[in-house]
Specification:
Layout (H helix, E strand, L loop, with lengths): L1 H8 L4 E3 L1 H12 L1 H4 L10 H13 L4 E3 L1 H14 L4 H16 E3 L4 H4 L5 H13 L6 E4 L2 H9 L3 E4 L1 H4 L10
Helix pairs in contact: 2-4, 2-5, 5-6
Length: about 170
């Protein structure tokens, strides 16, 4: 159960991938955009609620990396029009400044991860952070499988999307 993993390990932080960070930003701005935006249309407002519930259950900081923030910023910038784009970029600035704990990962370290050639720099940096013993929340099945294989505390968000239990509904 994700509650168990979050209880035991999230004091060290919860790292969410760029796709979920995009969902968080767009959902916070306008829930109606979730199912119409080209980068979040696979989600629904209830998925946003589930993500918020995961964040609420975390006992530690919400972690990110410079590469996750870069991907998120680029996706949001390209997928929204004004005035929503400006509001989204201001949200990213606020998140980066006050709510997220940024864990820098040097590219020289990330490219040494075995998955670099398959999954790229951002996911390699995420895998590198397994040393933090934090919880990883992702929608990326390849990243999920890799993190599981190396013994990381990882939750596949997609496994819980259609199973909105009462304990995960945002209040």
């Amino acid at each position: 159960m994700p509650e168990d993993i979050l209880d035991r390990h999230s004091r060290k932080g919860l790292l969410i991938d760029a796709n979920l960070l995009v969902l968080l930003i767009i959902g916070a701005l306008d829930r109606n955009q979730i199912s119409t935006n080209n980068r979040t249309r696979e989600y629904c407002p209830e998925d946003y609620d589930l993500l918020c519930a995961f964040l609420k259950l975390s006992n530690g900081p919400i972690l990110t990396t410079p590469n996750i923030l870069t991907e998120t910023s680029n996706i949001v910038f390209a997928s929204l029009n004004e005035p929503l784009r400006n509001r989204a970029m201001l949200s990213i600035r606020e998140l980066a400044s006050m709510q997220l704990k940024e864990e820098p990962v040097l590219s020289v370290h990330a490219v040494q991860e075995p998955i670099f050639t398959r999954l790229g720099l951002t996911d390699s940096g995420i895998a590198y952070l397994r040393r933090l013993k934090c919880v990883f929340l992702t929608v990326d099945s390849d990243l999920y499988v890799h993190l599981s294989r190396i013994g990381a505390n990882v939750i596949n968000f997609n496994h819980h999307r259609s199973h909105l239990s009462n304990s995960f509904k945002a209040t």
